[in-house]
Amino acid sequence: MQDFYRWHQREESEHDINPVAVYRREEFSCSRSLESGRYKFYKVSLCVQGSGRLGYADCGVDITRSALAFSDPHIPYSWEPYSAEQTGYFCLFTEDFLSRRKRHGVLPSSPFFQLDGDPVRFPDEEQTRLISYFFERMLLEQNSNYPGKYAVIHNYLDLIIHEALKMQPSHLLFRNTAAFRLCSQFMILLDQHFSEQGDWRKPADFAGQLYVHVNHLNRSVREVTGKTTTTLIAERAVLEAKHLLLQPSHTIAEIAYRLGFNHPGNFNIFFKKHTGLTPTEFRRQTVCSS
Q: Per the confidence metrics, is the pTM higher than 0.70?
């Protein structure tokens, strides 16, 4: 049996190949503590048997029955097991997995991956059986040779999201600090800006829209996410760039100017710095893998 904590430490290199992966919890030592940290991937977990405490940012919730939990790479999370037996499933996926399917399904816009969302739901017995079935189907697809298996897995994740939306919010995690509220407003504004306009903005521009000093905004964002506003703006710009690169109607030069770069060469340098690929290489790679 592989060690769950050590596996999380090496997950980044393993998932450079696959944008999504599904596992059974019993295949790992989930009975060991997972220290609080910010991981690279989005995560959907179904705990069928076993108890513990899920830490999320500066809050936490005791899991003593079947639970469906959602983790966002922007927010640190931890797991402190109470029992040795831990069964269920979890699925990890990357920003690329979301960006390639940005306009399809409910997964990218899910409230469970919003900063101010409630990331835990408690399914009843029938819902637990149904969601377990979805995870089993994802496992089968993952191990198949079908070229469109990732699209199928995405569809099953959408079904899990829909089931979660039918459940009552747990209201067990309260994040009502001033820093959290300001950070939530910034993240919403950041997403709206790139979705509607797409061009580059500095931290001071967002601070002005939120009527706060840029230093106050930076402190609040770093306190909640562990990242600077500049880093989050760059990450959101990369996500928007990837989405635009998936559309062959946009030339790389057009994308560069839309994102606020004065010259396509500057965009190429920026994109390669954050992804390891040039825009042309990313476009060629995604076309070949689709």
A: no
